[in-house]
Each structure stands twice: as C-alpha cells, then as structure tokens.
DNA sequence: TTGTACGCGTTATCAT
DNA sequence: ATGATAACGCGTACAA
C-alpha cells in the first residue's frame, strides 16, 4: 500500500509515544535529550524510513546550508577546477552548492542572482560576466546582509570579499621575461578591460614595456573573447602584417587563444619561438601539450574555490554583521616553458 | 531602521487591502485574477522589495524546481561540458541545479545522494563513481518515485532512464580503424570494468580483434584510472618491453592517458604513428593540440547533459508515475587524426 | 529531561 | 474575481 505522505517527526513521535519536539531535538543529537531516547529516536527514524525535510527546516531556521555559485561559463578548465575546489570545501562544512552560469550575459547573471536570492542561499560566490557594468542586481543580498564573495572577475565593494591573484604582477613578470629573451615587439591578446583580470594583465604588460623603454604599439594590442577562434584570428592578423611589422612575441591573456594562435602560425610556417615567442595565462592542460610547451601563469582554480568557500563559511559561522571587508590575493607562478625561450633555443 | 523581517505576501496584501491568497495568485500571473489587480500587486511587490521565498513555496507545493546532479568529478573536460549542457536546459525550463561530486568514492556518493534527497530535489541526475557496486543508496528516490536519470556511467534499473553513447560500437570501430591501418598488436588502456563505459569499450576492442582473427593478448591490456600518471606509466610499461613485444598501436579509453602516454613515448624516441599508432576517447581539447593529433571518439558532453535534463523534466511535467523506462543512446563519431594514420604517413 | 504551542511564508481548498 | 482558513514539516520559547 503506497502511502504517499512523507514520514515526519510526528510519525516518529507517535511511534514512540513522545513529543515531536523531543524527536526534533533527538535527531540533531541535542545533548539535553537522554542518550537512551536519542538512540530510540534514531532507530525509529531508520525503521520508518524518515528523511529530514531540509526546507521545512530552512523555513523555520532561516538558513539553508546552501551556497549560490554564479559563473560566466561552466565549461572551462579553470572554472571547473574552481568548482571542484568549492564543492570540496562546501561539502567538508556541510554546505551544498547551487550552480548557474551567466554565459557571459549580464542579463542572465541578473536573473540567476535573483533566483539564488529567492532560494535563500546563505551566501553567494560570483565571478562576473564579460560585460557586467554594475552590481545593482546584488543589492538584495547586500540589504539582507547575505555575504557575497567575488572571485577572479571581481568588483570593488566594501562589504564583500574578493579572491584574486596579482594579475598585474603576473603579467608584468611574464612580459619582462619575454623582454629578457630579447623580444622587442610584444603583442598582447587581451579581453574586455571592464574586467579586472584583463585590465590588470594589460596594465602589467604595458608597465613592463614602459620600464624597459619599449614603445606601446597600438597595432600590437588586440582584444577579443580569447576563444579558439579569436586565437586563430589573431594569427591571421599577424600573417597579414608586413613581415617587418610582425611581433616577435605574443603574450595572450589566456592559454586557449595563445595555443590556437600558435597552431595557426605554425601551420603557416612561422617558427616558435624563433620567429615569434609565446606566453599565455592559466596553465591550462593544453599548455603542457602544445609544442613547444607554452610559457604561462599557473594559479590553482582549486585553491581559488577553496579559499572563496572557506572564507564565506567563516563569515557565516562568525558574526556576519560585523565582518571585515577584505581582498585576498592568492599566489600565482610564472611557468617558463620552451615557447618563450628565444635566446636559448636560438643558440642551439 | 533596519527591519529584519522578510517582506511577505501578507505585507503586500495589507498594503493593498486585499487578501494574501490574491497576492499569491497575482504574483504567479494566475489569469483568474483581474489584470488590474495583477498589475497593482506586481507594483507593490517591487515597491516593497518583495522576493518570493522559494522553500516556503516548496514546503506547500511539494516541488522544489531543483535537480540534483551527482558526478564522479567536476574537473574534467567532459564533465564540465555535461554540466554546462545541463545548466542550460535546466535554466531554460526554470529549474536549478544542485551539484556534488563523489570524488570516485562510493561512500561519498551515498552521502551526497542522501543530502540531495533531503533537499527534496525533483529529480536526480547521476554518473556513478569508479567503484560503486550497487545502487541501494538510491532506494529513497525510487520509493518516492522521484525520477533518476543515469548518464555516461550508468546502472541497469528498470524504472530509470539511462543516457549513453554506444561505447561498444565506438570502440569496435576505432579498433577496426587501427587494424585497417595495418596494426596487429593493439594495446588497450582501460578503466574499471565495473563501469559500463570501460567494460563496453573493452568488449568492442576485443570483438574487433576477434572479428579480424587477431589474438587478444593479455600483456597488451592495462587497467588504471586513466590519469596523466597512468598514461605515463603505460608508456614506461611499453618501453620496458622487449622491442619485438611492443604494441604497434594503443587504444586508450580516454584521451588524457593516451596523450600522456604519447608524450612520454615521444620523449623516449618512439615515433608516432610509425612505431606506435594511437587512438583515444572523448575528443578532449588536448587531442587537437598534441602532435600528431589524436584519433578519438567525439561525443558531446553538452548533448548528454541537455538530453538528460530534458528527459528528466519531461517526466516531471508528464505523469511521472507512468513514465516508460528507456535508454537513450546518443550519437558518437570517430574522429580520425594523424596519430593513427599509419599507412598513409608511412607512405610519405 | 520532556512537552505544549506557535509560527516560518506559501499555496490549496472551499467558500463567497 | 477574491477571501478565509488550514496545512506543509520543522524548530524553539516557554512551561512543566
């Protein structure tokens, strides 16, 4: 006889001739309750096939043990590492993740944020879409003091934490490295400067040129969405230039564009790094497979995710009304590989 | 004065001197309600900063518009494509995704399944961990008729849908292809045969050998977790063999192991495909970057995800008590690339 | 240590 | 077309 009502704490209570309140307490292992009754309750729960109803609980207790995660895209190596790190940390603390992607669309980001709010997530983890201009859509969170943690593509907000790496410094160093290899006409493939990550990488690149008294050449700066296609188009752009105008190095703001640019140039007979040296960003798996291996910047998505969630949960467990604003800068490492080692290769 | 109570439909009701029931209906655009009142309600809602409380609604209406997704790992190319596809389809239908990973651990899978049940997901999408032996942990879902959709790593269950590709056929074809290239000693790098995907790929490989009257050689079958490290170890295993015993081709059950095996062999002076031809599985981005490009099996994670969610939601919207069990086999394509083109390359 | 009683915010039912 | 009321399952202040 398929009874279709849920098994509730009342059923357990009736079964044991005790009150629902006691069952509720016993199930949470409240030490006030007699150890014996606790055991009896647990047994009865198992026997009756009781499964606690999280949102009935949430309705009462005002917290969901659920974190919202809002990212531009789910299917990139970096982002899936971040998610893996987040899930790990969340799980460890008894939290769950509800995940949505904006597909780089500010409007969708707004809708998703609203959904997450309506689901009453205990906190929000967000990396902004390509063209998000403001964060008005996060106001409901701010108003209700629901903590928001920005990561990677962040937005200045003095009541939220941001998790980033030093994009400026990493870009500066990688550009400096190319310069030390003898490169003088370094091209940069960048993204939308609305986003800190691309702005900072561009700034770092430019500053390195300045500090080395190299000109910043307008023609050697391309912005795009840094997709495979964008990499291929960058290569065509280079091939269309008069040979003397061509760059002797390319620093791309991500590995995907770098790699597909390399592949296209190689197919056209350009030698790497002899003719054009390369550097990317992210340490994507493809950077270790392309030949010559791509010089890049390594930073752990896993760590970003872990840090973001851990930080958020700490706020949640502490006094969330008084927590201190901060920005956490994670470590990143320059990974030097053959694609940028101009002089050394040339010596052979 | 920071009032910390939520804005509820009662506030709107009071504000407009109407009943909460009307507000509830109006907010859902119930056509029974006067268009005028509907507008007034919407306006008041905006004005008062009302945000619907999803789980109060869920408590009453018995459905959460949330789907649980339980995967072995979040951070693989295939899985992140699947998730992207799922999120897309779910979003399109007004559903959300709550995501957890088992980290290939059956115990963790069990715990996660329980959490998902407790959150009363409307349906569960699951790909089994490496060593899951049974699906007793899904019983609560079956008992409550909550639809479960298996994808990729599935389990036979006559009240659930499975989304797969024809792993057997794809493996058969790719092995046949290698044989047609003149390969006679084809090694197979496989996974745990507990999982259909690896069992079927192994079977397809073996059948192709049989059909071509080639011996199935014990030493040429290695099982592992198909990680980078496993690929490297497979290469070492090959290099340790007497040259005459070595395979003349390797068919790996995933691209990662294939690519790292290739890289290691290349570094040791083995020529690919002349000495050893290669084929993988998944059409991971690295397969397009390795040189020579890896022959592989393409199937869209995006489509898997989309299909799984769409199917699930169809059940949800239809009569979920009567839905018909089925197994959906998605298309996959053999992608032939240079790494396996033994004869052609040799001719040059 | 346990029980009573109420409320969380919404929706379904029945009535008007 | 709208209102009154109960109920969803749980947690907690207060009482015992």
UniProtKB/TrEMBL annotation, chains A, B:
Domain HTH lacI-type residue range list: 7-61
Keyword annotations of the record: DNA-binding, Transcription, Transcription regulation
Isomerase found in the keyword field: no
Pfam family for this entry, one: LacI
Superkingdom classification of source: Bacteria
Protein name: LacI family transcriptional regulator
Transcription among keywords: yes
GO MF annotation list: DNA-binding transcription factor activity; transcription cis-regulatory region binding
InterPro entries: HTH_LacI (IPR000843), LacI/GalR-like_sensor (IPR046335), Lambda_DNA-bd_dom_sf (IPR010982), Peripla_BP_I (IPR028082)
